[in-house]
Amino acid sequence: MTVNSRKCSKKQDESDETHQFPILPLDLILEILLKVPGRSLARFIIVSKQWLSIIRGKDFTKLYLTQSSTRPRLLFTSVYRNLGQSKLFLQSCSQQDPSSAHHRLNVSMHTNHLFGFTPPVRGLICGQTDTIVMIGNPSTGQFLTLPRVKTKRRGLLSLFGYDPVNDVYKVLCMTVLRGHPNRGSRYVSEEHQVFTLGAKQKWRRIECKYRHLPPPYTKGLCINGILYYYAWIQNEGSLISFDLNSEDFNVIKLPQDIPFLVNYNGKIALTRQYSKLGPLYLWILEDARKQEWSKVSIVVPSWTELAGNIFFNFRGTHSTGELIFAPVREIKPVYLISYDLKEDNAKQVEVGGGLVAGQNPSLIVYLNHVESPMFLSK
Asked: Which residues have a Cβ under 8 Å from the Cβ of 168 and sit 6 or more positions away?
């Protein structure tokens, strides 16, 4: 073989290696990518321009989310404070098998600034501290800081939701009182602003005709394009609904003044902190327009044997309909309590993955989180 022929052969081999991915049929590429964990897709965009175009396309995102919704995950947020330092960990695992492999993400933060996160919405979460608001994708590990909120008052509350009509995510931000405001305060939420996630967006002012004040611990729940959150109207607790499509506010009268909202089989429900001394009471919003509520009482069997002296909160319903209770603080080993209403059977479900231990930890678990391949951009 001559020198020239060897060079040609080497170039041919390099060419074949370079083009081995693009010659795969498109259907096969899609099938491969739809089975890849979200955290791996961020690395696969460098394979080729074709793979980059596919992964970042809206059609692929929709297909991926559709498949992810059939295998929902638990999302844990753990905050640790020690010697003036704070660390935040996001960790997810299979909802069907919480003892399986975990995906952990360490979120860096300023020493004196903690980001409070909203419940996940179609794979994304929203965090806020002071006037800084950011959107995060726990699957890819990507976080996007939004333009700073312009406000005359420093106390802010950010809520997060998804508008299925226009296929967009939105952040609702309003001014609130810092600290521990009281009912009947003369201060109310002001400067209501909306940010639509997408290219070259900015905060927009909107009007709200209802004078209300959400407590600072309010996080809100988004169901079917409506963002629900608890707020005070003078001395009375109310449920505020915000339509993410029309951007209209409405007030729903509560059957009882309870600030804790959960997703109960796809419906908004009110619940008190669960007590070991009695049943779990739920008030379920059956019809928001007619403001109709129903009430159920649930007794979890063998609760004392399962929970011991540990405080658990009701976190909502599993995709299978089971009721899930989670510890208020981290315990070792970490476990949830699952109650199957149909079978009238309760059990402990241990969570594997080694949730990070630390001094003075706090733990929050969110149900029905889905992995998303979405890449964030302003």
From this structure: 162, 196, 197, 198
